[in-house]
Amino acid sequence: MKNHNTLLDNLAPRKFGNRGTIWVIFLIIVIVLGLIAYIDQVRTGQVVTNMRDYALWGIYISNFVFFVATSFVGSVTVAILRLTNNSWRTPLVRIAEIITFTSIVMAGLTIMIDMGRPDRLLNLFIHARLQSPITWDVIIIPTTIALSFLLLYFPLLPDLAILKTFYKKTKPKFSKWYGKLSLNWTGSESQKAIQEKSIKIIAVLIIPVSIILQTIDAWLFSTTYRIGWDSTNMGAYFISGAFVAGLGALVTMVFIIRKVRGLNNYITDYHFDKLGKFLALACLTYLYFNINEYLIPIFTAPVEEDIHLNSLVFGEWAPLFWFAQIIGLLLPLVILLFNKGRKPLPMFFVGLMVVIGSWWKRYIIVIPTLLHPFLPIEGVPESWHHYFPSAHEWIITIATLAMALLIITLFVRYLPVIPIQRTADENNIPSIKKNTES
Amino acid sequence: MEHNKKNSRRKFLNNGLKLGFVSAIGGLGLSHLSEKLNASNKTNSEDKVELMTTDGSLIQVDASDVVAVKHADHHDTKYNVREGIPNRKFVMVIDLAKCKNALKCVSACNKHHYVTGENAWLKVHKMQESKDTAPYWMPRTCMHCDQPACVTVCPVDATFKRRDGLVLIDNERCIGCRFCMAACPYSIRVFNWSEPEQGEMSEITLNMMDMGHENPSIEYAGVPSRKGTPDKCDFCPHQIHENKLPHCVTACPNGVFYFGDKYEDTVTNGEETLRLTKLLKDKAGYRLLEELGTAPSVYYLPPVNRLVDFDKGLENYSEFESVEKPKSVEKPE
After folding, report:
1. Which residue of chain A is at minimal alpha-carbon distance from B231?
2. What ipTM, to 2 d.p.?
3. Which pLDDT belongs to residue B15?
4. A370 — contact with chain B (CB < 8 Å)?
């Protein structure tokens, strides 16, 4: 971090290498396969899934809940750390903003995959009824998309202006685009004041909005008379779960991007240590709500709920349940308590465990409940008593995950993943042209 | 003070002026309208037609005003599918003491609603609360709740509650989110995961054409089924409309089902007609999952003093099938 030039060289977007190209092609192939599967699903109907009248929601919904959860990271790291003046967030915020925006866009897409009649999507607006939690979702998801886009875009403005000058000679076309996107950013005092104020407003706004988003997501379940969903704990439980899932996704992404882009000087052990402590806090909170959700009901559980809890803890769902609890929560928590556990490489594995555990945790929240109705499951084929996703469902779901990774990859390709201007400012590196500092 | 008074006077004048302006425009518009209305009366005054009113007096009407009455079809014009029949409240009573799992209700329901999937709208559950309590057979229709959870959560008003108590589905509007199915504590809803096999020229479509509907309509009880939307027991509005009993009621050989109007306080199973309140009082009627507060329209009478042994019903019992599959290639039954 000696001077502005090396800073720019390090942080400016870089062309894909061989690995990068192969990675993108791989993702596109997966997405195309998913698209084909989805078209088939629309044509023949959702009979191609393994969802049936009892397991009426499947991984489409649990995957949706997962995406919604990971989108929480933006408000946690960017907004909360900003408002509490935690300066260690600087090299991490852009990645968090990218994850947030991508996740919420993908959440909006995946929920549509679950619709039996996607051709009637507009009915959600034409015939909207405010009392339905789905309508709340229809309102809050676009709101979050808009806000998280602004949260990504406004802090980018100075960086885009820097890139405009940086690429002026080497890549005039890029330069032109960055210039357009930078909205004539000159770095003048008045511009800075406006930008600062806007970011502050967005940061304050995104906290309630994403808390509402997580809560509405929880209410999709808790507004029904279903055992395991009909719980007043649900809103807080989902928020704390999103805290964990989002940070897990951030840790994993930060490690990978750091490695691929060689950013070891910018994202240091210090940052991982801080992130690790933050994730440990998230895990502890989540543990608390898990105890509320699964342990305490044992005392007063009515028969149906007892059956449900038993099948989770000891029965059919026990392997997945304990996988999600141990790999996704307890083991990471234990690892994070040690200094060595918060070094970059262990943190990467912790992040990965958390993400995978969180994904399956959503599955455990959505599906077993549906298979434990109040009245016995009778008069339907034997296979309807169980649920495991079909090939179509897997392909489509994996394609949505691939699409999320592709969007993130493209952002990393074309945007500076670490804020250049702010890094320069914080390290007192004067810019070459002296146009930004006064 | 002086200044203030002046100000308020100015305000008053200003407002008065605005009001006057608005009323002037309104008046102008009104006079225009009335002119037009009068004009049409004046122009065709030559050809008059003599008509008789309903009370027998003769009147003269301008010929141009005579318009052919659009011929009312099968239904009376006041019948609104979403509103239902005013001043009625349909209820059902299911006497568990009489049910011996004959399954005639199920097959009649399947036949008349063209249920071709694998999950019937009406099912008979084999119930036993605990090891030591007696087993019994429990037919389960849609409860047509007065506080229907499915209607509350529907984002597009595709499932709705009528004034006569019926909860129905507009499967031309439904977006297929299945939230209603998740919300229903009785798990009664059935989804069309693929294109329903009722066929273009099946009996159902022909039936509808007879009734003068070009398009499938919920007036015929939410059928034909639509891919990607749910179905459910509908209390047979097509039967009610013709003053007939729902198919399950008439099909049951044991008189298990009573159907009627709560406001009239009568229910009938086709053989006997009883006072609803008295029946519920005498036989200790109850509703399913009352504690949830869904306020069902279906009442159950407890399975006491049964004439037939529970085990007799086991002959018909099949755990994994509720819709009989046609054995030949022909249409179901």
Report:
1. A53
2. 0.91
3. 74
4. yes
